Amino acid sequence: MLHVGSDRHFSLSISQELSIKGGPETSVAAVQDTHLLSADFKRAGDDLRLIGVDGKIHVVPGYFKSENLHALRSSDGATLSGEIVAVLAGPAALGRYAAKDAPSPAMQVIGHAVRVEGQVTVLRNGVVVALNNGDVLLKGDVVQTDSAGAAGLVFNDGSAFQIGHGSRLVLSEFKFDLQGSANLEVFDLIQGSLSFASGKIAKSGDMRIGTPIGSAKITGSAGAGEISPDDGSVTLSIFQQNDGLHRATAYDKNGNAIATISSEGGKLELKPTGPTQIAASEQAKTDADRAGELDALNHLLQIKNLTDHNSSTTPAGGGPHGSSSPPGSYSAGSNEPSFEPNGASGANPPANTGLDVAPHPPGGGNGGAGPGGASIPGSPVNDAPVIGAAQTTGAVQEDTALDPHGLLHANGTIAFTDVDLADAHVVSVGFVSSTRAGGLALGTMSAHLTTDTVNGLGGQAAWQYLVDNADVQFLRAGQTIAETYAVAVSDGHGGLASRNVTITITGEEDASVLPVHRRPPRKPVTPPHSTSR
User: Fold this and answer.
1) Which of 140, 158, 232, 334 is the most exposed place for a label (fewest CB within 10 A)?
2) For residue 116, is it within any domain?
3) Beta-strand runs (E) in 57-201
4) 456-486 pLDDT, tens per residue?
């Protein structure tokens, strides 16, 4: 081990292993003496710096020199791919990765945050920003919660996630086309815990939850995953519901199926026993585990209800007309979970966290949901705001219409309505993309509510874009850069509507500056000395 100073050191060895897909061999960097999963990842030129929770800095020299970034493996067998390491470390400069073949994350809106508690941030293209209710989520984001933070997230296919305390989740891949069959959702849990409910991708494509030692393929279910902070072992479970058997398949890092998880079975524990070895064991669920599943299901149901308003619930005693869904269940697709927790008791109704989730009716009945089923009779349905006329473009030009502070401005408004008459609305903005080299924004956009709805009508939000004129002087005459921002209107109950606003910045010809030639100062003329007689 090489020591650098009294508190900085690194230890590194290189081995050859199979890649995650079992293809040609690729290098793996084995990092010692640090807890890989809880470290903070930073670039320092071509070097990778891992900053431990103890403040020690572990250096992997020359890590970013390689065109194909090495995976990192800890002494306990946890492995992070080069792609994930690059996302965690951020770009080398101006949003670009050092490795030639590693693309920067696509600026693609894939979901929203609907319930944020405590401190929650997003690492986006190397920049840490606070995550608030209603904020957009982009492909490639890393959602991070502190020891008291939690986040409820929903995605475009209807899947929902609850991220637990002290967690990191990488939104690695997301492709969704309602009419397509090649849909893909891959989220990697690096640290902490999560619970999830699958959406349409699990039905029509491939949904996977990755971990540092393996992954789980989800085929229409709700469940949970947790990474032990002690030894990196992973616990996976599928929740029990009253609508049939649900399964998921666990894979190792080489893509080999190693176990099947069932809603009727126990919890699956995956424990690394060597560089590439995993021991899989099943543990029976305790009463505390089942109570935890019920609580997690209720939280997921509430997260779903914050954004889903397609009549997913019905009055007690009957499902939707022509539907095979059990009463009180959610079913957006034949392979999706029903959110009907099994084992609920009339004496212990689900905890109410402020949303309209009804307990069992008096007398111990369950509203026709079946023995032990938790029902949600007559739950109100939240309707999202609807955007009407909207100014979705703006333009500024270098050296033109500056304010007294040297700033360029663009402004616009977005009109909206909301059939839920009592809703009070909040407006937020999220940066989406820029055509500038590196993808970073030159300016900033803000937005605020100018008029709220009255009897559901007349709502209006205003946005303003600002950029410092000094920051656009590098543009040539006629050269343009387009920056896109998502302006979202939230009703405070999970209903959300957004529009992308694109600002075009155009360069202007800078006047030539001619050098000023000054004559050298003339020397004073000294008169000739005269001699007096």
Assistant:
1) 334
2) yes
3) 57-60, 71-74, 79-80, 109-117, 120-124, 127-130, 136-138, 142-145, 150-155, 160-163, 168-175, 183-191, 193-197
4) 888 999 999 999 999 999 999 999 999 999 9
Distance CA 91, CA 43 (A): 8
- Give the whole-angstrom CA distance, residue 163 versus residue 403: 44
Q: Which CATH number fits the domain that encloses residue 392?
A: 2.60.40.10
Residue 160 within a domain: yes
Asked if 304 contacts 162 with a C-beta cutoff of 8 angstroms, the reply is: no
C-alpha distances in angstroms, 267 versus 40, 169, 260, 372, 465?
30, 21, 10, 21, 51
Asked if residue 476 is part of any domain, the answer here is yes
Q: What is the pLDDT of residues 300-324, one digit of tens each?
A: 888 877 765 433 333 333 333 332 2
Exposure of 533 by Cβ count < 10 A (0-12 exposed, 13-18 middle, 19+ buried)?
Answer: exposed
Task: Map residue 372 onto helix, strand or coil.
Answer: coil
| Rounded (to 5) percent helix, strand, coil in the chain | 10, 40, 50
Residue whose structure tokens are 């998880």? 261
Cβ atoms of residues 365 and 346 within 8 Å: yes
The residues with which 163 forms a beta bridge, in sequence order, are 151, 194
Token pair of 349, please? Answer: 């109704």
**Quick count: other Cβ atoms within 10 Å of Cβ 160?**
29
Residues 284, 433: one domain?
no
Q: Are residues 151 and 261 in the same domain?
A: yes
